[in-house]
Design a protein that fits this description.
The protein has eight helices and no strands. With 184 residues, it is mostly helical. The chain has a single domain, classed as Orthogonal Bundle (Retinoid X Receptor), CATH 1.10.565. Helix 3 crosses helix 7. The longest helix is centred in the last third of the chain and has 36 residues. It is globular.
C-alpha cells in the first residue's frame, strides 16, 4: 500500500523502512480486524478463513482474548466504512513518530499525515455535517489509538508464546534483547 502513497516515492530508503516498520503491525492488526468484521465474525479471521481462537477456548488467556477478539470492538463500535478504512490505513502509514526517521522524512510524513487527516475530516463533514462529521472523525482517530494498543498486546502475546515454548531462554543475554525488541 505504501507504493500507492506519493510521499513514499520521495522518501529516502531508510525513511521508508522506518515508516513501514513502525506501521506494519498496527496496519496488519487493523486490516485483520476490519476484514473479520466484513465477514461478520466476533473474532479475528485470517484471509485463508483460519480463526486463531474460537471462544470459549480452554487455553485462552485474557491476552488471547485481547488480541483475537477485543481488537474487533473499536471498529465494530464505530461501524467503519471502506472509505474510512482506506484513509485511516493511509494515515497509519504516514505517521511521523516512527523511530529512525530523518528530520526531512519526519517533516514529509508529518505533512502527509496532516493532509490525509484533513481529507478524512472533510469526508466526514461532507457526509454528516460540520459538528457530527467532527465527532465521527474523532471516533475514527480513536480506532487508530486502539489499534496501536492492540498491536502492543500482539507483541506481548508473541513473547508469551515464545516463553511458553521455551525458545527465548536458551541464551540468557539474548532473551533480554528479544524481550526489549518485541516490547518496544
Amino acid at each position: 500500500m505504501s507504493k500507492a502513497i506519493p510521499v513514499f516515492e520521495i522518501l529516502q530508503f531508510s525513511d521508508k523502512e522506518a515508516a513501514i516498520r513502525h506501521a506494519l503491525l498496527i496496519s496488519t492488526v487493523f486490516t485483520q480486524a476490519y476484514y473479520s468484521i466484513v465477514k461478520h465474525s466476533d473474532a479475528l479471521v485470517m484471509p485463508d478463513g483460519h480463526m486463531p481462537i474460537r471462544l470459549p477456548h480452554k487455553h485462552a488467556t485474557n491476552l488471547h482474548y485481547e488480541v483475537f477478539c477485543r481488537v474487533i470492538e473499536p471498529i465494530k463500535r464505530v461501524n467503519i466504512t471502506q472509505e474510512e478504512y482506506v484513509l485511516l490505513k493511509t494515515i497509519m502509514l504516514c505517521n511521523p513518530v516512527a523511530k529512525g526517521l530523518s528530520e526531512k522524512g519526519r517533516k514529509l510524513l508529518e505533512k502527509e499525515f496532516d493532509r490525509y487527516s484533513k481529507v478524512l475530516l472533510r469526508h466526514m463533514q461532507e457526509r454528516l455535517g460540520m459538528a457530527p462529521g467532527a465527532v465521527r472523525y474523532g471516533q475514527i482517530m480513536q480506532v487508530f489509538e486502539a489499534m496501536a494498543h492492540f498491536a502492543q498486546k500482539h507483541r506481548e502475546l508473541h513473547v508469551w508464546i515464545q516463553i511458553n515454548l521455551g525458545k527465548i531462554f536458551k541464551n540468557d543475554k539474548n532473551h533480554i534483547r528479544v524481550l526489549e525488541e518485541v516490547l518496544s
